[in-house]
Amino acid sequence: MRSRLLPAVLICTAVVLLLAATLLTVGGNGSDGAARAATTTGGTPTTGSAATGAAQNSLATAIQAAQVRLRTLPKDDRTWAELGSAYVQQARVTGDPSYYPKAQGALERSLQVQPTDNVAAMVGLGSLANARHEFSQARDWGRKATAANPYQAGAYGVLADALTQLGDYPGADAAVQKMLDLQPGLASFSRASYSFEERGQISQARDSMSRALAEASDPADIAFCRYYLGELDFNSGNPKGAMEQYRLGLIAAPTSDSLLAGRAKAEAALGQTDAAVADYATVVGRLPLPEYVLEYAQLLKSLGRASEAQAQFALLTSIQQLFTANGVVDDLTSAIVEADHGSPAEAVRHARAEWGRRHSVLVADALGWALHQSGQNAEALTYAVKANGLGWQNATFAYHRGMIELALGRRDDARKHLSDALRINPHFDRVQAPKATAALTSLGGPK
Questions:
Q1: Contact at 8 Å (CB) between 37 and 133?
Q2: Which CATH class is domain 8-329?
Q3: Where in the chain is the domain with CATH 1.25.40.10?
Q4: What is the predicted pLDDT for the residue at 44?
């Protein structure tokens, strides 16, 4: 969709300082959180930087400094690794996946120069694989890096992110715990927060994210933490609380696209639809990431602005093609979009492809819903049950399961799960939440 993506400012600031000092150690803060880069459901955020324009400038400076150094010292493996990692972060900050092939080239060059015990390049390649949703490769790089240096906290961050997306939740928890042991801080606390959230332990998730905030000093780090605190509030059915967190984050980082998108989502939930449309238009104009475009399209569709919504769905298709051309594997987003706004048969195809690569609860939910939309409800229910297996208080998961059960004639079960969905978050989806309300009314109301 989720470990927390570490803000790019923290990474780029480290890169600039380390390049200047020529003491280059990659990934010490566990910078990559590719679980956030994976498209998710239920109001779960994915990628999207809390970085300001200053962060982009710092990254560009770091990249330029590395390039200058490598012209003089072309066999400096650490600078090649730093350059590759900076490209990964630049792709995230700008939403431009064309930086990923550049990152791959630089990181592979680092390994060519120093093929043994090159933890910096291993962590960088793991981060790149996570960003491209190649989670099995990211897991393998994470394991290689932790074997080469068991005290490298960033390597455990790469590993935790990959294992989360692969559905190995005990393994991910162990990696997060190791990261906490080695380097308790923003990166590890934010990952712990997500682990708690996945299991429905919202107060613990909020406490961990608050501890991450206490560690934050840079404006982008503060904005990052405020964003995810806001997401915890929104996903728990509290858009007013979420709005306050987004507001505080925007004070720290006024140009944060993730916070502006969060504010738009909260505005829509609170009935401030004109403001929501304006904010989404700004975000999509600056950083047209798939999750922002999809949310904007759904809002427009819910407002009856069909032609404008269709234009956003067309843009989403183009963005997906661009990401695919640059090595990003993302059948999950395609499955989600096709299930609700396109071809159910295509949704099933994409979801099965994703399930063939990884067994996370996010993919289970998407596959179950795609099967339901294509009329295969008996099989759909098996995946909906898997999706709800962790105890995640996820309104979308509960809604999907309830609608599948309703289609199977299991009215009591459907009533329970539809009630759960609207209790958890009545604003979980601009298009689907009204359908949940209508279905629940037909069953006699909340249970």
A1: yes
A2: mainly alpha
A3: 8-329, 330-447
A4: 30
Encoding tokens for residue 89?
């972060």
* Tokens of residue 9, six digits: 């400012």
Q: Which residues contact 106 (CB under 8 A, 6 or more apart)?
A: 80, 81, 83, 84, 87
Cα 392 from chain centroid (whole Å): 16
58-72 b/e with 16+ CB inside 10 Å = b? bbebbbebbeebbee
Sites in the chain below the pLDDT cut of 50: 1-48
Domain 330-447, classified CATH 1.25.40.10, yes or no = yes
3-state secondary structure the chain: CCCCCCCHHHHHHHHHHHHHHCCCCCCCCCCCCHHHCCCCCCCCCCCCCCCCHHHHHHHHHHHHHHHHHHHHCCCCHHHHHHHHHHHHHHHHHHCCCCHHHHHHHHHHHHHHHCCCCCHHHHHHHHHHHHHCCCHHHHHHHHHHHHHHCCCCHHHHHHHHHHHHHHCCHHHHHHHHHHHHHHCCCHHHHHHHHHHHHHCCCHHHHHHHHHHHHHHCCCHHHHHHHHHHHHHHHHHCCCHHHHHHHHHHHHHHCCCCHHHHHHHHHHHHHCCCHHHHHHHHHHHHHHCCCHHHHHHHHHHHHHCCCHHHHHHHHHHHHHHHHHHHHCCCCCHHHHHHHHHHHCCHHHHHHHHHHHHHHCCCHHHHHHHHHHHHHCCCHHHHHHHHHHHCCCCCCCHHHHHHHHHHHHHCCCHHHHHHHHHHHHHHCCCCCCCHHHHHHHHHHHCCCCC
Q: What pLDDT is recorded for position 29? A: 29
Q: What is the pLDDT of residue 51?
A: 52
What pLDDT score was predicted for residue 55? Answer: 65
Cα-only R_g, the chain: 21
Q: Provide CB contacts within 8 A for 229, sequence distance 6+.
A: 206, 209, 210, 213, 245
| The residue type at 153 | A
For the full predicted model, state whether its pTM sits above 0.85.
Answer: yes
Q: According to the model, what pLDDT value does residue 18 have?
A: 31
**Residue bearing tokens 């590890």:** 188
Q: What is the pLDDT of residue 15?
A: 34
Number of other CB atoms surrounding residue 271 within 10 Å: 10
So what's the pLDDT on residue 53?
60
Tokens of 347: 């949704």
And the tokens for 82? Answer: 């730093």
